Amino acid sequence: MAKYVYFFGAGKAEGNASMKDLLGGKGAGLAEMTNAGLPVPPGFTISTVACNEYYNNNQSLPPGLWDEVKTALKQLEQTSDKGFGSTANPLLVSVRSGAKFSMPGMMDTVLNLGLNKETLQGLAKLTGNDRFAYDAYRRFIQMFGRIVLGVEGHEFDSKLEAYKEKVHAKLDTDLTAAHLKEIGEQFEKVVADKTGAPFPSDPMQQLEMAVKAVFGSWFGKRAIDYRRINKIPDDLGTAVNIVTMVFGNMGQDSGTGVAFTRNPATGEPELYGEYLQNAQGEDVVAGVRTPKKIAQLKEEMPEIYQQFKKVAESLERHYKDVQDLEFTIERGKLWMLQTRSAKRTGLAAIRVAVDMVNESLIDRKTAIMRVEPQQLDQLLHPVIDPEAKSKAVKEDRNLAKGLPASPGAATGQVVFDADEAEKLGHSGKQVILVRVETSPEDFHGMVAAQAILTARGGMTSHAAVVARGMGKCCVAGCEELRIDYIKKQFQVRDQVIKEGDYITLDGSTGEVFEGQLPIVDSEVVQVTKGRMKGGESMLYTYFAQLLAWGDEVRRLKVRTNADTPHDSAVARGFGAEGIGLCRTEHMFFEGDRIDSVREMIAFAGDFKSFETQLNMAKAEFAKSHSSAIGENIKKLEEQIKLPKDRYFNALSNLLPMQREDFVGIFRAMNGLPVTIRTLDPPLHEFLPHTKEEITALAQKLNVDAKSLIEKVESLRESNPMLGHRGCRLGIVYPEITEMQARAIFEAAAQVMGEGIEVHPEVMIPLVGITKELELQSDVVHRVAKEVMDKSGKKIDYLVGTMIEIPRAALTAGDIAKEAQFFSFGTNDLTQTTFGFSRDDSGKFLPYYVEHKILRDDPFQVLDQTGVGRLVELAVKEGRATRPDLKVGICGEHGGDPTTIHFCDRVGLNYVSCSPYRVPIARLAAAQAALEKSSGYTTA
Fold it and tell me: Residue 654: what are its φ and ψ, rounded to 5°?
C-alpha cells in the first residue's frame, strides 16, 4: 500500500528538499528546515499522491490514509507533549496546502484547528490569557466557516466590523476577551444559520473536513486560473501540511511576518519584509493592520532579529537562491513556518543571478538557468509609472481590457485613421491609432502612432505582429470597444471617447486607461538606443553580463525580423546576429511609395492580359500568316503600350526607393546576413476599399474611376491568405521580383563599395511546388549576374524559400535541390496545418486553451506535435538532399522560449524574432543548449 503521510519534528524529517513532487514545495521546505536543525513546529505532510487519488476516487479519501493520519497525530502529540482534543493541554494545528510549484494565495489554509468549547477553556487556562484564547476561537470559526463550510466571508466580516463600531474599537487588538467571546458566539450563529447545522466540535471531524477542503481547493477557480496562466499541469495535485500551531497573537512579545532574503523587486542584498506584533499570519496578508518593516524588528526584538537574520542567511546559502520566508514569534521564541524560492521581478532575477555568481554561491550556468526569458520583457519596454497607475485604478479611470498583444506602455490622442495618425505623428503629436482591426494599408499610421488599440484580432493579428516587430505597444481584441468611424469616437459602456481625447495603454496587461498617465522608459532601451552609456546604468550592466554568459554557451544564432534601418540598428543593439526576415511589402507604405505601388497594380493586369493575347496571336500568326491575325497583332501592340509603360514606370519609380532601404539595412547590419522576402501579400491589400477612396485614387493616377473600381473588385479574393500572393505573384508578374532583386543587389554592390561586407539571402515566399522556386530563382540569379557584371562586385548571396505550407514541408527533399536555405514561416504554417484563421481564431482559441482542448494558443507557442513534426521532417529531408542547408525560423514563434528549445533540439541554425524579443531569444537559446548538454534545468 502506498505511503501517504510523512512526519517531521524533533530535528528529524521523513522528507527533504528533493521531494517536491511528493511533498509539495511547502512540505519539502518544512522537512529540509527540520533536518537542518532550524526551529520548525512539528507536523506531518499528506502527499500529493493522496490528493490525486482523492479525485480519482470520486473525492473520497484513499483507503488507509486516515489510519496513517491518526498514527502521525499520535506521534505529533508525543513530540509536542500535547493532546489533540485535550481539554487540559490542547494540541492545535494548521492545515495548509502546498503544491510542487508555488501558487501564492490560490489555495486554502485553516489555522487553530482543534478548538471547541472545551479545548478553548483548556487553552485559556493553560496560557493564562483569556483574550488570546477567545481571539483564536473566533478566528478559527471565521476561517473554517469560510473555507470548509462555504459561508461567504462577508457574513463574518460585517458582524466583526459592526461589533467594533458598537464598542468603539478601531483595531481588532482593541477588542477585549469579553468582546471576542461574544463575537465568537455570533460567528457560531452565522454558521448555524447559513449551513443549517451547528459548528462541528469534534477535532477529528474538523481535521478530516479541512483536509478535504484543501484537496478541494486544488480545483478551485483561483487555482485553475493560476495554473492555466502559468502553464502548471493539473495532475500534480497539492500536498496538505498539518503543523503544530504556534501563536503570534499572544501579546507584544509575539508576532508574525513574511520576509525575503533579498529585495524581490530590485534584487538588492537586504533582508526585506514585514511583520506584525500580536497577530496571526492572515493579518499580514489581509492588511487589517499596517505592518512594520522587518528592519524595525531589530529595534523591538533585537535577539529575535539577529536569530532570524542568521536563519535567513543560512537558508539562502543552503538553497543557493533567494528565499521567501514565513515566521512566527511566540512569547519571544522564533519559529520558521515556510521557506521557498521567492517570486521576483525581471530586474531582481537578473541582479540576484549575477550577484550570486560574483558571491561564488552559484556558477554561471546556474545563473543562466535561474532567469525566466520572458522576465526580460520587463526590462525592455516602457511602463506606466506604478504610482500613477495605482491612482488611476482608484479613480476608476481604467476603461477596458483587451489582449496584451505587444508589451510596453504609451499615452496619446485617439485617432481612427492611419493618414491622420501619420499627419499628426509627423507634426510631433503623440497619437494612439484605434481601429476595429488593422490591415497593411494602416502601416504608415501604425509607424507614426505611439501605440495601437484594436477591437478585434488576437495575439498574432496583423496589429499584434506588426507592433511587436516595431517594439510598439499594442492592445488587441478589446471587444468592449464600440468604434464609430463616422462619428470618430468609441464607446465603452456609457463612456464615450472622442478623437483627440487622451488614453493610455498598458501593452503588458492589456489595460486601457482614460487620460494621460506618465510613462517610464527602460534604462536598457536607453542604452541600446545610445541615449545613455552602458556604464551609467547598473541595470544594463547586469542585463548585459547575464546575456554575455548565455552567448558563451548557446548554439542557436539569433536574428531579427526587421524592415527598416532603424529597427535593424535597435535589434543589433539587443544582440541580433543578422536579419531573418525583411518584409519588403512594409516598405511600400512609406510616403509617396504607395502611389507607385498602386499605379503598378492598376496597370499590371491589363499589361499581362494584353501580353498573353499578343503572344498567342504571334504564335498563331507564325503558323498561318493570316492577315486578320496580323491586324489584330498591331491592334494589341497599340493597346498594350499604355499599360506596359505605366506598369514599368511604376516599377522604375519603386526601384530606387527599395534600393535606398536595402542600403540602410545593409549598413546597419554591417556584414551580418540579411534575409529578404520578396513581395508576399495579395495585391488588393495595397488598394483603397471604399468607392470614394478609389475615385480619389483614379483622379491621382489619371485613369477612369469606373474601370479602377472594377479592377479593385476583380482583385478581391474569397480567401486571400490562400490566394494570389507570394511566389504566385512573382511568377505571374516576374518583373516585380526582378525589380526587387535588382534593388537588393545594387544596394549590396553600393555598400560593398563603402568597404562593408554584405550577405543578402533572397527568400521566395509560399513555395509549395519546386518548379515555383525554380522560376523565381532563375529571375534572381539572372539579375544578380547582371548587377555583378556591371558593378564588378562579387556578391555572396543565397536564394532560398519560406516553408509555410504543409506541401512544402512534405516535399522538402525535392525543394532543397533548388533552395540554399529554408526559413520556416510558422505563422502561416500553423494556419494551414490547423485550418485556423489567425485573425479569426481569437473567437474560439481562448476557450480551447481554457478547456484544455489545446495546451497553448498555437500562434503563440509552436504546436510541436503537428506543425513541429512538419518542421522536423522538412529539416531532415532537406539536409538529406543538401547537407549544408541553412535552416531558420522567422515566424512570431521565433521569440517564444518553448519554441526555441524545440528549434535547438531539431537542429535549426537560427531563430528570428522581433527586435525587442532578441534578448529573450538569446537567453532561451542558451538555456536550451545547457539543458541538452549538461542536464541543467530551470529553477
Answer: -75, -30
My answer on whether 87 and 234 are in the same domain is yes
Q: Are residues 336 and 389 in the same domain?
A: no
> Which residues make Cβ contacts (< 8 Å) with residue 13, sequence separation at least 6?
6, 7, 30, 31, 32, 34, 35
473 in catalytic set: no
Q: Which of 489, 521, 553 is the last residue of a domain?
A: 521
232 with 322, same domain?
Answer: no
Nearest to 612 by CA among 650, 652, 639: 639
Q: For position 452, which CATH number holds?
A: 3.50.30.10
Co-location of 333 and 387 in the same domain? no
In a domain, 919, yes or no: no
C-alpha atoms less than 13 angstroms from C-alpha of 726 in its C-beta half-sphere: 20
How far apart are alpha carbons 120 and 299 in whole angstroms?
Answer: 34
> Mean pLDDT per segment of 10 residues, for the chain of length 939 residues?
91 92 94 95 96 94 96 96 94 93 76 95 91 93 94 90 90 90 95 95 96 91 74 90 91 88 87 85 59 88 95 95 93 93 85 96 96 87 85 91 85 94 90 87 84 79 70 85 94 94 92 93 81 82 96 97 91 95 83 82 88 92 90 92 92 94 95 96 80 86 85 82 91 96 98 97 97 98 98 97 97 98 96 90 86 89 96 98 97 91 97 94 97 66
How many domains is the chain built from? 3
Name residue 506's amino acid: D
* Strand extents, DSSP E, 342-493: 383-384, 398-401, 403-406, 409-415, 431-435, 451-454, 473-476, 482-484, 489-492
684 is catalytic: no
Helices (H), 102-255: 117-127, 130-147, 153-166, 177-195, 203-217, 221-230
Backbone torsion region of residue 674, taken as left when φ is above 0, otherwise alpha when ψ lies between -120 and 50, otherwise beta: beta
* Four-residue CA torsion sign, 568, 574, 577, 582: negative
Do residues 295 and 396 both lie within one domain? no
DSSP state letters, 756-775: ---EEEEEETT--SHHHHHH
pTM here is: 0.81
660 part of a folded domain: no
Domain that holds residue 162: 71-244
Of the residues 727, 890, 903, 913, which is catalytic?
Answer: 890
Same domain, residue pair 110 and 172: yes
| Residue where one domain finishes, among candidates 344, 374, 409 | 344
Q: Which of 179, 381, 444, 462 is catalytic?
A: 462
* Set of cell numbers at residue 28: 519539502
Residue type, 684: H
